[in-house]
Sequence to fold (481 residues):
Amino acid sequence: VTGVVPSRIVVVGASLAGLRAAETLREEGFGGTLVMVGDEARAPYDRPPLSKQLLTKGWAEDRVTLADPERLAELRIELRLGTAATGLDLSAREVALADGTTLGYDGLVVATGARARTLPGTEGVPGVHTLRTLDDALSLRASLSPGGVRVVVVGAGFIGAEVAAAATALGNSVTVVEMADVPFEPVLGARMGEVCAAILRENGVTLRTGAGVAALEGGEAVERVLLDDGSAVDADVVVVGIGVVPNTEWLEGSGLTLDDGVVCDETCRAAPGVVAAGDVARWPNPALGGEMMRVEHWDNAAHQGAHSARVLLAEEGRAAPFGTVPWFWSDQFGHTIQLAGRPAPDDEVRVIEGSVRERAFVAVYERRGRLVGALAIDRPRPVMRLRALIAEGASAAEAASGGRG
Amino acid sequence: VQRSFDEGETMGYRVVVDYDLCSSTAICMQFAPEVFEVRDDGYLYLLDETPPDDLRAKVEQAVRGCPTRALSIAEE
Fold:
């Protein structure tokens, strides 16, 4: 043993990936100092409910807590919450914080996640929301829960669709504006994108596709959304759901490779003694042929966070690669939608069970005869079997037959 | 569930599902198919509410892997 076992680990990021890293470090026997830095002044909390139950079911905010004070004490985590990291010095092994202090480390977990992308010039305009943090969700809930307001969701992604569902359930009228001609097409392809678009329309949402936002208009608060075809949609509330940006600014100039995320090797190591996990990490995923990817899903943050901790504790050259088939789910309008894999818009799509018309089915995506993705709407049972088959590089024929999972 | 404990007997545990939270993602089936089954009706069925100790590690993985945090373990 060459004395590489760290004695002081700093986890930058206090969300799911960072917490799972911290928990795993303790489970794996790390007995040293463990510091967790978070820019929000909140203990770690869970994000999936923010676009679901927190909006519609009146959840108290503490229901999304991932680790209460007792749990954090049990993990012996020194918390530096409400304090963003502002810089990293790799040679001195120090993280700089917004309050002017620095934290030395001999092991570092970068788990700073991502933030909601905004429409330029609309930040802080009353009535305009994004949805990423608990504060965002509480603010949005306050706007939506009285009901009877006109809501425009910009961006027909899965967050946008969940917000549209929640806003509809709360008695508001909802228009979704999407720049692409077919919503969800980059993620699901045209055919299945149309199915998810139909679910929106069937539930009373007005969908405007092929429509970019030219400007927001209003007085004190937003009043209408101007589209680039010259038309306008009246709005009391605008929710911008146009994706996220990884939080890497604090690492600029540090020597870490940044390219839409922190670039890592296949083990999730970014530099000696430095690992990255969650929405901020980009790595060659061995489960998908070594494709460089960044994954923004709950499941990935949980597992990559835990994995990154084991990599920090592993001896030189003994760290395992992190292979995973991306998977997420979305609850909207009473449907549970799941997607495994990374389909491309030109993959072949085949429905292998159920009925598209009844909105209960499983479809598989194939590329050159290989299974690369699986979409299930209200048919959860086969998804994990298909996910495993994607990792194995199975043929599409195996996916369609095979043991009924 | 009532059980008495003799001295030296290990504590049992019980799997608890919050069906208000469960979205039937079937993630749990991947970890512990002996305990969790999502059927074609779209609902999660608990096959064994008090699984044997040798399944506990798998059940814990399922609890931790559930993205809707619908699963928990009650010590008894």
The interface with chain B takes residues 46, 48, 53, 298-299, 302, 329, 331, 336, 338, 378-381, 383-384, 387-388 of chain A (CB under 8 Å). Chain A has a mean pLDDT of 95. Chain A is about 25% helix and 30% strand.
